[in-house]
Amino acid sequence: MLGSAVTNIAVGAGIKLVSNIVNGWIERKGAADRNSALKDAEVRKVQAEIARENAKDPFVQLTRRVLFCMLTATYCYMVIYYGKNPHISFDIIVPKKDLSGGIMSFLFGSGKEFHVVTISGGLLLHSFTEIMSTIVGFYAVPRGR
């Protein structure tokens, strides 16, 4: 009878020790995560402050506006030019698709064979339109919205 009581006490103490160790480990990990989150929040705050300071710089503002106007003017010129000259086409050289080089052949190329593809000015303009929508979104939309 005494042996079962001692065993129960030992098992209870063992469970308590294990739970204390696990709780301590969880608490330390939580504290480390909270400290890391606080550091990250401070870093983000400093980065936002630097970005605000840079955005107020007149040279940065002028450069952004000039670059936006130049890209938009180029796009407008291309729209008018290819609209008046629909017969224009371009020859581009592209590598032949050969997957014998393995799974990474799309990155590094698999051979030295190329072929010529002819594209129209409209197709070139369409590709440029996708780029322009990204540029307009980047430069024209105010920050923080």
Q: Give the low-confidence spans.
A: none
Mean pLDDT: 78
Helix content: over 70%
Shape: elongated
Overall structural class, as computed from helix and strand content, comes to: mainly alpha
Number of helices: 4
H and E string: HHEHEH
Q: What does the oligomeric state look like here? A: single chain
Q: Summarize the biggest pleated sheet.
A: 2 strands, antiparallel
The strand count comes to 2
Percent of residues in β-strands:
5-15%
Task: Describe the 3D structure.
This protein has 145 residues and is mainly α. The protein contains four helices and two strands; from the N terminus they run H-H-E-H-E-H. It has two domains: 1-56; 58-140, no CATH class. The radius of gyration is 32 Å and the shape is elongated. The mean pLDDT is 78.
Q: Secondary structure elements and their pairing?
A:
Elements: H1 2-56, H2 58-84, E1 89-95, H3 105-108, E2 114-120, H4 121-140
Antiparallel strand pairs: 1-2
Helix pairs in contact: 2-4
What are its keywords?
2 domains; 4 helices; single chain; about 140 residues; mainly alpha; two-stranded antiparallel ribbon; about 75% helix
What's a concise summary of this model?
The chain is mainly α. The protein has helices at 2-56, 58-84, 105-108, 121-140, and strands spanning 89-95, 114-120.
